[in-house]
Amino acid sequence: GGNMKLKKKKKDDLIIFHSGEIVEVQIITKELERNNIKVYPVDENASVLFPANISPGGIAPFRIMIRRKDLEKAKKVVEKFLKKKKN
């Protein structure tokens, strides 16, 4: 069994954390980065993986990608940020 497949650790998987308007995405990205959560640019290939998110002839929403292991922390950051925005 010399079948050595390179397996990435699941928690290092990149996941789409949020998608929305560019302004909102930029603000959330800044908040995440301030909290030491690395945000990855979504390249054009992502739209191939998620064709449902693209309306025909329309533009895809802007997306924020993070590592799976940062998800819980990112959720807390955004929740805190959204509470602040309401007040």
- The share of residues in helices is 25-40%
Multimerization state: single chain
Give the rounded overall mean pLDDT: 78
Elements, N to C (H/E)? EHHEH
SS-based class: alpha+beta
* Contiguous runs where pLDDT drops below 50 for at least 5 residues: none
What is the tally of beta strands? 2
In angstroms, what separates the terminal alpha carbons?
60 Å
The rounded Rg comes to: 16 Å
Question: Could you describe the 3D structure shown?
Answer:
The protein has 87 residues and is of the alpha+beta class. The protein is built from three helices and two strands; from the N terminus they run E-H-H-E-H. It has helices at 22-34, 46-49, 71-86, and strands at residues 14-20, 62-67. The mean pLDDT is 78.
Offer a few descriptive terms.
15% strand; two-stranded antiparallel sheet; 87 residues; 2 strands; alpha+beta
Short summary of the structure?
By secondary structure, the chain is α+β, with helices and mostly antiparallel strands. It is built from three helices and two strands, in the order E-H-H-E-H. The chain is 38% helix and 15% strand.
Layout of strands and helices, then pairs:
Layout: E1 14-20, H1 22-34, H2 46-49, E2 62-67, H3 71-86
Antiparallel strand pairs: 1-2
